[in-house]
Amino acid sequence: MAFGIRRAYPTPIVKPLWPYAVGGVITFFLFAKAANASMNTEEFINDPRNPRFKAGGVKEEH
Q1: Coil vs helix vs strand at 56
Q2: What are phi and psi of 40, to 5 degrees?
Q3: pTM of this prediction?
Q4: Among 18, 30, 37, 61, which is 20 to 30 Å from 7 by CA?
Q5: How far is 35 from 32, CA to CA, in rounded Å?
């Protein structure tokens, strides 16, 4: 018995799992879009943690 030699089986890996990969990519982009929409609301636009605020792209309203 040769334990170091593995036999190659024709097991499909990508074919049954492609819907999960596509769903993951779609979910990632939808969450990114929702996060960007949330960052640009009036409530969070002047938050110092907002990247646009740090870059100086937002005027402070007094």
Answers
A1: coil
A2: -95, 10
A3: 0.63
A4: 18
A5: 5
